[in-house]
Structures are given as structure tokens and as C-alpha cells.
Amino acid sequence: MDSIEKLLGEIKAETQNSGPKFPEQMEANRTHKAANSLSANPPQLMYNLDSLLEKVESEAKEHKVQPFVNVQPIELEVTSKGLGGHLDQLFGDLKQEFEAQEQAEQLKREQERQEEAKKLERLKQKQREELAKRAQEWLKKLDPYSDEGFWFGQFAEHYSSKLEAAIAYLEATPSEKRGEG
């Protein structure tokens, strides 16, 4: 038995000198030290713990601090009245604005087309008036007994007037052929 006691003594010496190697050994060492200090000074330590506990309890009773939190519940509605309703309304407003803008642009384009058509009609009218003046001059110079005069007489029978026939003839023939130019 002497050898067992000797081995226990050596192991005890190693563990005390080298310090704990594992967390379990460290915890056991702390617990052992606390137990030793409690047994060495038990009345003083107990008095300190009791006084601290009493102090904390008295402060808690005196102040009775309750946190003030003003929380208002937020109602989330899944229906169209909630956030979706606001988005729907916003999208609806944007859609109406876009459609109104598109209609305004279409109206503007239509007005521009009408204005262009009026300009074109005025230009045609002006060209027709100029052509009518040239046709009147051409009719004054035309000899009805010439080959051209005879041909034109037959041509003019299909028109409401000789002026209309002359305008059609001048539009159809190049100016070099008519002696102009």
C-alpha cells in the first residue's frame, strides 16, 4: 500500500504544480478554492451577500421603474383598401395621366395632319390658279383652224368648258411640246 500512497502523492504534486490542463480541472480547482475561502471566512462572506441582496431588493421596491412604451398597432390589410389599394390608386392615376397625355399627343398629331392637308390644298389651289392663267393665255394664242386647234376642239368636247380642257392638256403635256420653255 505504500507504493499506492506514494503514487497518489506524486500525482497530487503534479496537478498542483503544473496547474490544470483541462477545463474540468480548472472548474474543479476554482470550486475547491471557493470552498476553502468560504470555510476560512464564512460569516463575513454571508453578511456581504445578504447585504447586497437586501440593497438590490430595496432599490427595486423604491423605484418600481416600469418602462414606458407607446406602441400603436399597425393594421395590415391584404385587401385593396390597404397598401395595395394605395398602389392601385397610384397606378390608376399614372395610367389616367399617361392616357390623357397620349390623347393630347394624338390630338396634336391630328391637328398637324389637318394643318398639313390645308397647306397642301392651298398649294394645289395656287398651282391650279397659275395653271388656269396659263391655260387662258394658251387658249388666246390657239388658232382654232390649225391642226392643234382642230384637235383641241374635239378634245374639249369631253370637258365642261374649254378652260378645263386646256388646264388638263397643259397638265398632261411637257412645256417643251407646247412651245414654252
UniProtKB/TrEMBL annotation:
Residue segments, region Disordered: 1-24
Organism for this UniProt entry: Laspinema olomoucense D3b
Keyword rRNA-binding among UniProt keywords: no
Highest taxon of source: Bacteria
UniProt-recorded name of the protein: ATPase
Entry-linked InterPro entries: Slr1339
Keywords, alphabetical: Coiled coil
Coiled-coil boundaries: 94-137
Biased composition range(s): Basic and acidic residues: 1-13
Coiled coil found in the keyword field: yes
